[in-house]
Design a protein that fits this description.
Structural class: mainly alpha
Order of helices and strands: EHEHHEHEHEHHHHHHHHHHHHHHHHH
Distance between the termini: 65 Å
Helix content: 40-55%
CATH class of the largest domain: Mainly Alpha
CATH superfamily of the largest domain: DNA Cyclobutane Dipyrimidine Photolyase, subunit A, domain 3
CATH topology of the largest domain: DNA Cyclobutane Dipyrimidine Photolyase, subunit A, domain 3
Shape: globular
CATH architecture of the largest domain: Orthogonal Bundle
Radius of gyration: 24 Å
Largest sheet: 5 strands, parallel
Bound molecules: flavin-adenine dinucleotide
Number of helices: 22
Number of domains: 3
């Protein structure tokens, strides 16, 4: 049924997707500024477009983030309507139901979503309606940043320089104080019916203990980081034990906070040593932009090697080793600690992500796409750009990749970045009593040390899946064959 409504009273529809926030939400702010009633809608179109089922940890996050957004919007006078289906069809249905003449949204950048939003815009405009989109998720439109020869960037450093030279980003916009209520009835799904939470078994206890999804949680993380950690960020960010980084990644992935807000807060912050940590942190935010830039120009980033010479690489098919890696049972403590942190909390420290990804793609010579899929399913910050771009970077097949011969030694990496063993002891408690000297290489410990620590290799903790030197030689031979066209 088409609603008949006075033109000035026609509501503005605001579509929420991966921008689950009130502040610095330009679509919402613009709708509030019209003075018309606002209909706030979350449309879950992920299974419609991406061709890639969203991961289960992301679903968990989405549920709680929607609950938080819904409560915040209800306080402002615009309860959140929940829909599922194709974006354009849902928007047209809402237009018909409410008599709205305008639909606003913040832009998305992963290719299936971009395509859906182009259809959305064309459909609305074709029907004579206003369709307006805004920025928010990224500081730079991937389509606009170009090298001096007019091509897209493939290397991070010049990209980062271009980003830095582009000047200060715009100021964030405030959350609306109040939204004019729409008084009609609109059909909405219930949050439960989106079926985003795990049921049997409920594996999300560790996620609940670790995270507060939603805008408030994002600001708590940012405040904690600026108050206590940013001054030590440059030196401490590679240490996985304790909290040395911001842990903003899932909040950014769901758009609960924007890079504009983060950079503005960084500029306001005056720490003991304001430059060092802040500069490094800005460069990490630029990595996120770079990954999105890569994805925009290579839409099949999670499926196809950036460097197609890697199509020839003889990956091994080894189900049991893949499973051991997934479950943190490789026999290399730093890898196992990372994989268990991921399973328990939905997040893994960046240094350990690199070590674990290198171990899978180089030591085990298992296709990086298998690792990327596991991360996609288990990370709360699983991101269509950052996940495949980083996997390809580590595996060596990426745009600006780590050289193929850089094969992390998991023993030395563990000793260097977790020398006191706090991280391994937390996530691999069966090794907790081993002295630091043997913690990252328990198979080399004298029998007496193992007995004193209650470790029985092959029973309480696995033998290493592969020998480091042999695995390294095997990986180098496989990568050499690719390089030499073999
Ligand atoms: C194999 C692998 C897979 C990854 N998959 C993802 C993913 O799915 N989603 C994701 O957000 N990040 C991913 N990363 C990047 C990085 O590990 C995380 O962004 C970071 O660990 C998040 O923690 P933080 O918020 O405390 O980071 P901080 O050190 O506090 O950095 C601040 C922000 O900068 C961005 N950032 C930092 N490092 C990177 C990077 N290397 N690439 C892109 N953005 C970065 C993130 O948005 C992060 O929140 C991956 C890295 C690797 C090696």
């Amino acid at each position: 049924m088409i609603a008949k409504i006075d033109r000035d009273e026609a509501p503005v529809i605001v579509l929420f997707r991966r921008d689950l926030r009130l502040a610095d939400n330009r679509a919402l702010a613009a709708a509030a500024d019209t003075g018309r009633p606002v209909v706030a809608v979350f449309v879950d179109d992920r299974t419609e477009n991406e061709g890639r089922k969203p991961g289960r940890a992301s679903d968990w996050w989405l549920h709680h983030s929607l609950a938080a957004l819904s409560a915040a919007l209800a306080d402002l006078g615009a309860p959140l309507v929940l829909r599922r289906g194709a974006m354009a069809a849902q928007a047209m249905d809402l237009v018909a139901a409410t008599g709205a003449r305008a639909v606003y949204w913040n832009r998305r950048y992963d290719p299936p979503a971009t395509r859906a939003d182009t259809v959305l815009k064309d459909t609305l405009r074709g029907a004579g309606l206003e369709a307006t989109s805004f920025d928010g998720a990224l500081l730079h439109e991937p389509s606009l940043l170009k090298t001096s020869t007019g091509t897209s960037y493939r290397v991070y450093t010049p990209f980062q320089r271009a980003v830095a030279a582009a000047g200060e980003p715009r100021d964030p916009v405030d959350a609306p104080g109040r939204l004019k209520e729409y008084r009609g009835r609109i059909e909405s799904l219930s949050l439960q019916s989106l079926d985003l939470l795990p049921r049997r078994p409920d594996w999300a206890g560790g996620l609940r203990d670790t995270w507060v999804p939603g805008e408030t949680g994002a600001w708590q993380r940012l405040a904690g980081f600026l108050d206590h950690r940013i001054d030590f960020y440059e030196a401490g960010r590679d240490m996985p034990d304790g909290e040395s980084t911001s842990r903003l990644s899932p909040h950014l992935a769901f758009g609960e906070i924007t890079p504009y807000q983060i950079l503005a807060a960084l500029n306001r912050h005056r720490g003991a040593n304001p430059r060092s940590g802040a500069d490094k942190f800005r460069k990490e935010i630029a990595w996120r932009e770079f990954c999105n830039h890569l994805l925009f120009h290579k839409p099949d980033l999670h499926e196809a090697n950036f460097n197609d010479r890697f199509d020839r690489l003889a990956w091994r098919s080894d189900g049991p080793s893949l499973k051991a890696w997934q479950h943190g049972r490789t026999g290399y403590p730093i890898v196992d600690a990372g994989m268990r942190q991921l399973w328990q909390t939905g997040w893994m420290h960046n240094r350990v992500r690199m070590i674990a990804a290198s171990f899978l793609s180089k030591h085990l010579l298992i296709d990086w796409r298998d690792g990327e899929s596991w991360f996609w399913d288990t990370l709360v910050d699983a991101d269509p750009a950052s996940n495949p771009a980083n996997w390809q970077w580590v595996a060596g097949s990426g745009a600006d990749a780590a050289p193929y011969f850089r094969i992390f030694n998991p023993i030395l990496q563990g000793e260097k970045f977790d020398g006191d063993g706090g991280y391994v002891r937390r996530f691999v408690p069966e090794l907790a009593k081993l002295p630091n000297r043997w913690l990252h290489k328990p198979w080399l410990a004298p029998q007496g040390e193992l007995e004193r620590a209650g470790v029985v290799l092959g029973e309480t903790y696995p033998h290493p899946l592969v020998d480091h030197d042999r695995a390294r030689a095997r990986a180098l031979a496989a990568f050499d064959a690719v390089r030499n066209g073999g």
